[in-house]
């Protein structure tokens, strides 16, 4: 061995190459950290770009409203000074600016988009813009005035104060209008106000989503608890065999299970046929099991049940059966022993399973869409409707944001209670 | 676990009423199907009481007695309602034969602890029946689609021919349609074009990241983990909405790579979870030993670490594959008609043109999931064995 001094003049411990040990250790640690981060970085960047960025984009969409201020720039500025509560139409200057803006918008072919954007807030504006599009492009601006009369002649909708109020209200680059919409409110003359009773749908839908998710979660606890118990308490050979009955549905395609329920629950379906055959139900009064809430709840309970059984099972496996025997030998009845000794120990499993099932069910789309009819659909079906059919993307984004906040709060709770590292599959 | 209890024959006052009660319950249903529940109840109770009494006389050997009861019920079923009822009758007969002897010989006591009261024994078996019913609930929907997929008619229900086991009631035509109709074959081809690529991407990126995450000093480990797991937690409809906006913006909406990218992200949490779980038991001194003997990091990874965590990687990959293969919401949003996948085709099929070809597709998919389940289960056991976590 060569004689490298163990300590330097200041008494610090040195490593083999002569640098202070502390420094050398720090360097090694730093290198290790960097290497770990380098391994994680590609995936993290990938997820950030292809998943987190889209979500952030959606959050942004829920307040973004630049279409109008970008395409009617002069109108928006002059409209600032107009007071909708004065009871008078905006001044001629506004109409002239509007004609100019509209002409440019028409040449860029965005006037129909502005129309349909405003139509979400006040029905009828879409056709107003479409009709104006055909005429206004022929006008000679600014020599054709006065435009107030020209617009009024074109369509009396332009002489409606409410139309201008709507344009003014939504002229900002950002708006809370979509969020107000998604909680059944609207921007009225004096700020936010509730929508008329017959137009309120979203609050009902949110409440229904919550109640049905709760019902599904409770049913899953009710059905999952005995199964998890018996799996945890049977000899492992039998338990493994029975486990297949839980894992097979878990691994089977969601579409397969949904189609199976569609087959089972329809009027002429297996369940009704059997009930009629054994005489529990008369042939002419078959149970309506599909295209309503019952259908959604039955099918989704079945689909999500494995997500309840698996966490419950893994918790119950760790509960020693000797505790129960001890309780009984100390004089507890079966029920007391279960309720006071076993059940409290299984609560972490119930918690983990319930949050998981609740999170999954609250955002479900496919199954409610196929077996829920109109009464059994969730808020996610409404989001899909706005994206794919009505094209009111801002509203879809706002509804999605609200749903996301709820789910994230639950995710956070799940992380606190169970820890995301402890999620187990299969 | 439980001490065996010596068994003894039970008195007639217990066996006959119990068996008769079971007969009465079954009789209600048979009676209802025939028109009168009350009559069924009485006949069922009386019939089973007689059988119980004969059983208890112990004149015939047990096996022969059970055969006689089974055959008797099968014939009765056939006379009442034809061929399907023959099978149900035989099942009933087999059950009652077994039930009568089970009670009479006191066999039900054999596997429960000797100190239990009769109430507790009753609860023990009631509980098992309840659990059995829940297992039936879990598995029935999957079993029901299988025979229906062989339906010769375009119906979603069992036809009279099928119930009579008439060969004319069955056919393979839905399978033929599934295998020849371009709508379905294209859908399968698309699924097979997308899923493996997405799986490969998520497995390679996910495994690297899981190895990085499992090292001891990772700053912000919890936050990173939360981000990487989030695609599994965020509702699909929200992911789909976000991707719909964002992918349109960057111009990959409706393209093959757009869908692959989306499916890769959705599969990543599963890879991370399974691989990190495998790495929990990984002995890091093995990699140090390899490095000590002069192997570079790459060689260490492929020669030492990879073989040991392979089971976790493969089952993560299978999860990722099934996620992509089964995914429908995102693909509806960001896909295009040319990229219609199998689940999408099933979804539109279920919503619009209800055709039993869906059931043929479903049966094939159930077969695939059984295969996947078997592989994952074998891998899990192998992995536990490798890490010395289970004795066998």
How would a crystallographer describe the biggest sheet of chain A? 2 strands, antiparallel
Distance between the termini of chain A: 55 Å
The number of helical runs of chain A is 19
Order of helices and strands of chain B: HHHHHHHHHHHHHHH
Strand content of chain B: under 5%
Shape of chain B: extended
Radius of gyration of chain B: 29 Å
Assembly level: heterodimer
Element pattern of chain A in H and E: HHHHHHHHHEEHHHHHHHHHH
Q: What is the fold named in CATH at topology level of the largest domain in chain A?
A: MetI-like fold
Largest sheet, spatial ordering of strands of chain A: 1-2
Q: How many E-type strands of chain B?
A: 0
Please tell me about this protein's structure:
Chain B: It is found in: Cell inner membrane; Cell membrane. Chain B: InterPro entries: MetI-like, MetI-like_sf. The complex is a heterodimer of chains A (426) and B (392). Chain A is mainly alpha-helical and 426 residues long. Chain A folds into three domains: 1-61; 66-175, no CATH class; 202-422, Orthogonal Bundle (MetI-like fold), CATH 1.10.3720.10. Helices cover 68% and strands 2% of the residues of chain A. Chain A is built from 19 helices and two strands. Chain A has helices at 21-61, 66-71, 73-79, 92-107, 111-121, 125-136, 147-154, 161-169, 177-182, 202-233, 236-251, 254-265, 270-277, 293-317, 321-329, 334-362, 366-371, 379-388, 393-417, and strands at residues 185-188, 191-194. In chain A, helix 10 runs antiparallel to helix 11 (236-251), helix 10 crosses helix 16 and helix 18 packs antiparallel against helix 19. The longest helix of chain A has 41 residues, at 21-61. Chain A is flat and about 100 Å long. The mean pLDDT of chain A is 86. By secondary structure, chain B is mostly helical. Chain B folds into two domains: 12-115, no CATH class; 181-386, MetI-like fold (Orthogonal Bundle). Helix content of chain B is 76%, strand content 0%. In chain B, helix 7 crosses helix 10 (256-280). Chain B is extended, with a radius of gyration of 29 Å. In chain B, 42% of the residues are buried. The model of chain B has no long low-confidence stretch (mean pLDDT 86). The interface between A and B is large, with 94 and 99 residues.
């Amino acid at each position: 061995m060569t004689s490298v001094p163990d300590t330097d003049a200041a008494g610090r411990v040195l490593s083999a190459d002569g640098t202070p040990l502390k420094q050398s250790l720090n360097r090694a640690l730093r290198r290790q950290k960097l290497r770990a981060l380098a391994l994680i970085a590609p995936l993290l960047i990938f997820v950030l770009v292809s998943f987190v960025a889209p979500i952030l984009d959606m959050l942004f969409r829920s307040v973004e409203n630049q279409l109008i201020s970008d395409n009617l720039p002069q109108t928006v500025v002059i409209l600032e000074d107009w007071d909708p509560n004065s009871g008078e139409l905006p001044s001629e200057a506004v109409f002239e600016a509007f004609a100019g803006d509209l002409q440019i918008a028409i040449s860029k072919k965005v006037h129909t988009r502005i129309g349909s954007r405003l139509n979400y807030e006040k029905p009828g504006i879409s056709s107003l813009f479409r009709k104006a599009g055909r005429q206004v492009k022929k006008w000679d601006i600014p020599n054709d005035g006065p435009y107030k009369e020209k617009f009024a002649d074109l369509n009396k909708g332009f002489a409606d104060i409410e139309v201008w109020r709507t344009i003014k209200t939504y002229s900002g680059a950002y708006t809370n209008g979509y969020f107000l919409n998604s909680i059944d409110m609207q921007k009225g003359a004096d700020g936010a106000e509730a929508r008329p009773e017959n137009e309120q749908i979203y609050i009902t839908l949110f409440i229904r989503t919550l109640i049905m998710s709760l019902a599904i979660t409770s049913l899953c606890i009710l059905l999952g608890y005995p199964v998890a118990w018996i799996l945890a308490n049977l000899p492992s050979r039998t338990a493994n065999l029975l486990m297949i009955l839980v894992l097979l549905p878990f691994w089977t395609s969601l579409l397969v299970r949904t189609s199976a329920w569609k087959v089972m629950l329809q009027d002429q379906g297996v369940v009704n046929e059997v009930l009629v055959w054994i005489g529990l139900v008369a042939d002419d009064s078959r149970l309506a099991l599909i295209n309503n809430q019952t259908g959604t709840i039955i099918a989704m309970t079945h689909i999500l049940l494995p997500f309840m059984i698996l966490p419950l099972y893994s918790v119950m496996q760790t509960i020693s059966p000797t505790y129960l025997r001890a309780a009984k030998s100390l004089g507890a009845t079966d029920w007391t022993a279960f309720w006071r000794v076993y059940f409290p120990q299984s609560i972490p499993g119930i918690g983990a399973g319930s949050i998981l099932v609740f999170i999954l069910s609250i955002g479900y789309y496919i199954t409610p869409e196929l077996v829920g009819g109109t009464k059994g659909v969730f808020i996610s079906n409404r989001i899909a409707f706005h994206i794919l059919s009505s094209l009111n993307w801002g509203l879809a984004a706002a509804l999605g944001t609200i749903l996301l906040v709820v789910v994230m709060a639950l995710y956070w709770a799940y992380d606190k209670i169970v820890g995301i590292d402890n999620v187990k599959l299969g | 676990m439980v001490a065996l209890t010596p068994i003894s024959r039970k008195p007639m006052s217990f066996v006959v009423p119990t068996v008769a009660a079971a007969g009465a319950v079954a009789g209600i249903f048979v009676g209802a199907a025939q028109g009168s529940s009350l009559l069924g109840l009485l006949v069922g109770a009386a019939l089973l009481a007689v059988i119980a009494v004969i059983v208890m006389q112990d004149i015939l050997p047990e096996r022969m007695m059970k055969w006689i009861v089974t055959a008797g019920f099968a014939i009765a079923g056939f006379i009442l309602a034809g061929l399907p009822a023959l099978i149900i009758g035989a099942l009933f007969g087999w059950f009652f034969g077994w039930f009568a002897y089970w009670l009479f010989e006191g066999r039900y006591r054999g596997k429960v602890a000797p100190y239990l009261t009769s109430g507790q024994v009753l609860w023990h078996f009631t509980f098992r029946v309840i659990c059995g019913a829940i297992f039936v609930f879990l598995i029935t929907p999957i079993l029901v689609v299988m025979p229906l997929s062989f339906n010769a008619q375009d119906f979603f229900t069992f036809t009279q021919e099928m119930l009579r086991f008439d060969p004319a009631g069955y056919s393979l035509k839905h399978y033929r349609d599934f295998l020849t109709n371009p709508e379905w074959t294209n859908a399968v081809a698309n699924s097979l074009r997308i899923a493996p690529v997405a799986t490969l991407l998520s497995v390679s990126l996910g495994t690297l990241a899981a190895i990085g995450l499992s090292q001891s000093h990772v700053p912000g480990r919890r936050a990173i983990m939360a981000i990487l797991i989030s695609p599994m937690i965020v509702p699909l409809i929200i992911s789909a909405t976000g991707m719909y906006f964002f992918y349109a913006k960057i111009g990959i909406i409706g393209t093959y790579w757009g869908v692959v990218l989306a499916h890769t992200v959705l599969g990543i949490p599963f890879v991370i979870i399974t691989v990190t779980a495998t790495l929990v038991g990984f002995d890091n001194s093995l990699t140090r030993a390899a490095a000590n003997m002069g192997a570079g990091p790459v060689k260490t990874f492929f020669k030492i670490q990879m073989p040991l965590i392979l089971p976790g990687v493969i089952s993560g990959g299978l999860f990722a594959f099934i996620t992509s293969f089964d995914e429908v919401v995102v693909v509806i949003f960001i896909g295009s008609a040319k990229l219609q996948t199998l689940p999408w085709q099933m979804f539109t099929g279920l919503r619009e043109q209800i055709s039993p070809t869906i059931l043929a597709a479903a049966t094939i998919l159930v077969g695939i999931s059984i295969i996947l389940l078997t592989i994952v289960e074998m891998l899990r056991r192998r992995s536990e064995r490798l890490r010395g976590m289970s004795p066998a």
